[in-house]
Amino acid sequence: MLKRTILPITLEDFFTDIPANCTEPVLIRNISDMVSLFIDGEQALQEGDRELYRFWTIEPAPGEAGELAYGVTELYAGTIGSEFNMTHGHYHAGSGAELYMGLKGSGLLLLQNREGDLETIEFGERTITYIPSGWGHRMVNTGDENMTFIAVWPTGIDHDYDAMYTHNFKVRVLKTEDGVKIVPRSED
Ligand code: PAN
Ligand code: ZN
Question: Rounded distance, CA 72 to CA 75, Å?
Answer without folding.
Answer: 10
